[in-house]
Amino acid sequence: MDRFLHLIVNKQSRKSDSTFKKLLIELPKHTQNYKIYVTETTNKLEDVVKELRISLSKRDLVIVIGGDGSLNHLVSLFERYHLNNYIGYIPSGSGNDFARSYNMPINTEKAIGHIFNLKEPKEVSIIKATQGDIIHYAVNSIGIGIDGTITHEIAESPRKKFLGATSYISNVLSGFIKQEKFPITIKVDQGVYSYDQVQFALIANNPYFGGGIKIAPDADGTDEFLDILVADNVSARNLFTILTKLFSNKSHLTHSNFHHFKTKDVAFYTEVKQFAQKDGEPFEQDGFAYTMTTKKRKFWI
What we know:
single chain; alpha+beta; globular; 301 residues; 9 helices; Rossmann fold; two-stranded antiparallel sheet
């Protein structure tokens, strides 16, 4: 490979220490043309991107080593600063849903070898969510309700770095109990729909979320469509049935309390304050009035 590599290691990701050590061993076997940046905060990552904004040449690759949240932050910063260099990814988080969606190696040695075996980039869609001056990007999904509540609780845990993908599943019941129902109106290609007792709403670009849960089986990040999932007035018995279908034969989308749409654009509105997540990164707002669509971007994956 005749490209210079800029590798950004997120030390906050779950497996960052072991991945970093393997990186130092494996990289010199493939190339000497690289530079490693180590970040521990989102602000530090932005400082690195600002530096790259000045020094990047057109053919340089920027590779993030971290979880889905690390990838989200880098993609968001590249969009903000209008950087078009290809983004590579070596998964070292707890969920790694982006890597799973595109059949990328999770093993570090294989992931490094995969990057050097590639001949051309892959064009995929990312989610762009806009509300006035607020813009969010996501590579996998954006969710509000139970999804956001669970993600918030995991992020607040002092043991966050040591929690694996199963932590999402183990928190579903507590999130279900704590989540208050809220009204939401969505506008999709098929029309306008309103629901009064929503517990969960997800806008998905890829099939997986929560660390390997195939919540949107038909989602395809290479097309221009978004998969919209809304859980409305789900009882405890309904929840058990939905989860059973989800983990057995992926038929959960047929449940009468689960509403599914495939659309190129979506607008959704609720006045109620909610926790939300974008690629597993939590945020909170006093009401939501977002429009969302997909945007093409080339990745070295």
